[in-house]
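Preliminary data (for renewal application), flavin-adenine dinucleotide complex.
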Amino acid sequence: MLEKKHLEFREKIRAFALEQIEPLANTLDTEQRFHTEHMKPLTEMGLLSMLIPEEYGGKPTDTITYSIAVEEASRVCGSTGITLAAHNSLGTFPILKFGTEEQKKRYLPRAANGELIAFGLSEPDAGSDAGGTKTHAHRDGDNWIINGSKCWITSATKAFATIATARTSDNPEDRTITSFILEKDWEGYAVGKKENKLGLRGSDTAFLHFDDLKCPVTNQLGKEGEGFKQMLITLDGGRISIGAMALGLGQGAFDCAVKYAAERVQFGKPIAYNQAIQHRLADMATELEAARLMIYEASRMKDAGQPFSHYSAMAKLYASEVARRAAESTLTILGSVGYLTGKYPAERIWRDVKLCEIGEGTSEIQRLVIARHLLKQVQKT
Ligand SMILES: Cc1cc2nc3c(=O)[nH]c(=O)nc-3n(C[C@H](O)[C@H](O)[C@H](O)COP(=O)(O)OP(=O)(O)OC[C@H]3O[C@@H](n4cnc5c(N)ncnc54)[C@H](O)[C@@H]3O)c2cc1C
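Predicted structure:
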């Protein structure tokens, strides 16, 4: 499935990640500090413009290449992985897919140049049920006036703009939702306190509050009322990148486990000589490889223009559960040193990886998406 260009890219990005990203990963986690230092190298490597056409300053690649980038970055630092995934798949993609030419010209060159764009869908009362958004927008002449809050927003503190949804009907029962491109500098746009998280502590997650935020109608994204549909389409692609992030984290755990098992001597021989340890390693390697194939296949389907919604849900579901198991097995293989913070990446990965079973739809929601597709197929026959 992989072409020569993919293999070459993997080598290049792997070397880059080891040299530029990994050395800071532990520090950022411990200090709970955003990876500002990584932004220039990430921009120069083109990793923040992978979906943006050249005419808007991007370095476009196919989705497999993009998945490899998220995978390899996450293999050494989950926080950098989620920043990449959120910016590319959730921040720039909707502008590219649904934006006007004027919007593309205004926002994509800045995004390609390393300025982050966030994605504001989740709210305190609208998580899995994102269609239940309470944020409201009403029209006032050439502006929309937006009020409400978004929560859990990746890179909220850093992003210069956010793609956000709001209800554009005055009837609370009516789920007419429209999306907007909102700028951080506008009056009425406020970033809340940064969350203190279990993992991915080198990425910023925060609330956004909109208080009579005046958004010009020219910043409405696509047609009025189509916001929810647009966000579902966006999440279909985003799930591939969260799957790739999980895969990278799982692979990072495996790298650590296999090395440690070969080096750690107990009862006069490396613990890797024990069949119980070997079986764990074999299961991890097998499951990770299967997840990798699913992620690349979802990427291929997306680029081929095939329906891939159910498949990206499967790939994300499987990769995130496999990666969580790999992180857990790695802690088992490391014994007590695995339980320490900072000595080995295993404990950080174990904390980071849980997000992959939550963000962009929990595992339960992925199962609903997959089951809905299966049942539709049956109804068609
Ligand atoms: C680090 C981090 C970064 C994030 N980044 C972003 C971001 O950039 N932008 C953004 O918009 N959001 C972001 N999110 C939010 C994330 O996408 C939501 O938290 C997620 O969709 C789940 O919503 P919830 O937390 O409200 O859970 P809830 O919807 O309250 O669900 C709670 C539990 O109930 C289960 N559940 C809910 N409904 C059903 C059902 N019908 N059937 C079975 N089980 C169900 C869920 O699976 C879950 O286990 C982020 C979250 C985190 C932790």
